[in-house]
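Message: I would love a firmer grasp of how sequence relates to backbone shape in proteins. Thank you; the sequence and its tokens follow:
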Amino acid sequence: MTTYFAKDPTAIRLTVSAVARRGGAGCDLGDKAGDASETDGAILLMQRADNGHWGLPGGHVEPGESVTDATLREVLEETGRPTTPAETLAIGFFAPSDLPKPFVPIHEIRIQDAELGSRETLVR
């Protein structure tokens, strides 16, 4: 049976996804996800426990929370420092051209958006 981690799966809410690159600012996962001293453009991904799909760390924006704060909170929650939480099976860095399968379809679009190089928030 699939477990869904949202408190109210019927609520319409804003979601965020983070495209964190190995060696990028604030991305220090050490031995847990490869050698973080490298700067090769690999993207941090997590494998969901509810359906086994790989995707970007992310989740819902809480009422009164900024998009930036929500993204930082979700990355911390889902990458599990110091331990991996129950909603995440695995984390790792992957080249955008070599994403693991199965993969969350909308996250492929978000990675394509990130590859454009804009630092602006994109809304889809």
The mean pLDDT is 76.
